[in-house]
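step=encode ok
step=design start
structure_in=
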């Protein structure tokens, strides 16, 4: 993977179609991004979870384009796509056949049922041990079309039936997705919801040793297809460090709350601690198609849970500050206030979480770009987008607050805003400056400041921050000159 900035985007929400998105990347955004995480474009994109509940994971939704459009994109930019490892839609042909034919269906072994994990029945303590990202138990009782009643494992929604990844039908299904992606120019896969993929009676069914074994095995299958692998896991920071030691790439999901905390509380204390221990084989993000994860910086769950990067009291203050900065908009999109809720995330546009403060927003991006790893910028964040309260009101889906639909004209208008122009300048600096291929060093600083430096030979880039004074700048070399950003 190239050590330059990537974009995260939905084709239908940035441009409207695959070709329109391609036109933006080769037109007004030409040369800005070396990679694109193309969010679900599979048939269909408008199910229960914005494409993360695919009916056919190997087909492009015809409203967006075709596989030829994907291949055309891949000729101009490195493409990443999601393998939704954990589940498949109840509207899929496989499930519909299983519903009609039951145990006689060739797809019967694809779907995970309660008795597949608990053949002797589940006790209360077994069910309570299961780790949940959402309220309630991960099961849905259904009556199949053949009249049979079954209890299906449904980690996320009743329309998303979990796959039995330990049996041949599940692995064949997933391997077929890898082959299709590789044949159409995709270079990297993101293993979505991988932490929940393996289930075991009596365990919490999240990131168990068996999960690591499955990740290693499936990653080898991906590599045989020429695909790099990114693992998506929201969890306690020590678990993230453990995951990073076993995979190609992980996300630094602890970074967004830590950056927000440093800016709002005017201290680098907790951020600097993370900088000293974080893995470097990571993709750095401030925003994604999901909410801002709090679990990644917080304490481990349970009464005896290990402390987090942020004390619980600080985490609570941060969430309250975000809600104040958004005039309560993020509160209306988070938790039980909205559908599709996750207990560990605040749904909010990152620019809005900072109170629409242009300087602090660019500072947040500067910190992101200066940390070791590959930076990704979400399409709403690229355009310093605000909370889409109208879309939230229309759908009731909390995450839609940060999933605005931009047509090409709106994109071009936003590219003229000073904060967006400043972000594009930062991206160009991060992409082109030779220092970012050299050595990283966090320098000593007081708790209300931060000093980060990259150096390669005589070339350098240095970020200085004084949080209490809300002042920051980047000094960098350009040949024999020393320049500053922001200029002046």
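sequence_out=
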């Amino acid at each position: 993977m190239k050590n330059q900035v990537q974009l995260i985007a939905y084709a239908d929400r940035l441009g409207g179609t695959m070709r329109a998105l391609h036109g933006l990347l080769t037109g007004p955004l030409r040369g800005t991004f070396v990679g694109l995480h193309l969010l679900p474009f599979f048939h269909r994109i408008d199910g229960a979870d914005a494409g993360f509940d695919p009916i056919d994971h190997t087909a492009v939704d015809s409203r967006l384009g075709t596989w030829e459009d994907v291949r055309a994109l891949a000729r101009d930019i490195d493409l990443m796509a999601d393998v939704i490892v954990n589940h498949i839609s109840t509207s899929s042909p496989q499930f519909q056949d299983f519903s009609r034919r039951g145990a006689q269906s060739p797809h019967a072994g694809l779907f995970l049922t309660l008795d597949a994990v608990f053949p002797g029945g589940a006790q209360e303590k077994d069910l309570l041990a299961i780790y949940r990202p959402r309220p309630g138990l991960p099961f849905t009782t259904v009556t199949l079309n053949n009249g049979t009643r079954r209890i299906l494992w449904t980690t996320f929604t009743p329309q998303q039936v979990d796959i039995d990844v330990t049996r041949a039908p599940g692995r064949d299904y997933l391997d077929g997705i890898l082959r299709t992606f590789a044949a159409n120019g995709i270079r990297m896969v993101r293993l979505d919801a991988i932490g929940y993929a393996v289930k075991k009676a009596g365990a919490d069914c999240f990131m168990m040793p068996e999960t690591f074994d499955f990740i290693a095995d499936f990653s080898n299958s991906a590599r045989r297809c020429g695909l790099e692998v990114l693992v998506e896991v929201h969890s306690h920071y020590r678990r993230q460090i453990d995951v990073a030691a076993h995979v190609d790439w992980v996300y630094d999901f602890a970074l967004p709350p830590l950056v927000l905390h440093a800016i709002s509380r005017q201290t680098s204390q907790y951020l600097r601690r993370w900088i000293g221990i974080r893995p470097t084989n990571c993709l750095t993000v401030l925003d994604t198609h999901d909410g801002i994860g709090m679990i990644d910086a917080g304490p481990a769950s349970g009464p005896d849970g290990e402390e987090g990067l942020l004390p619980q009291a600080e985490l609570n203050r941060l969430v309250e500050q975000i809600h104040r900065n958004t005039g309560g908009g993020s509160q209306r999109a988070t938790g039980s206030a909205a559908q599709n809720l996750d207990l560990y995330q605040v749904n909010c546009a990152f620019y809005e979480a900072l109170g629409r403060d242009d300087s602090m927003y660019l500072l947040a991006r500067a910190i992101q770009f200066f940390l070791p790893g590959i930076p990704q910028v979400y399409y709403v964040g690229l355009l310093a987008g605000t909370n889409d309260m109208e879309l939230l009101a229309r759908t009731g889906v909390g995450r839609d607050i940060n999933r605005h639909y931009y047509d090409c004209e709106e994109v071009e208008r936003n590219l003229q805003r000073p904060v967006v122009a400043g972000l594009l300048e930062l991206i160009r600096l991060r992409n082109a400056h030779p220092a970012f291929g050299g050595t990283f060093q966090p320098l000593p600083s007081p708790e209300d400041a931060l000093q980060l430096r990259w150096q390669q030979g005589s070339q350098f880039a240095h970020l200085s921050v004084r949080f209490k004074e809300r002042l920051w700048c980047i000094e960098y070399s350009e040949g024999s000159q020393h320049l500053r950003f922001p200029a002046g």
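step=design ok
step=annotate ok -> The domain at 6-85+166-437 is CATH 3.20.20.80 (TIM Barrel).
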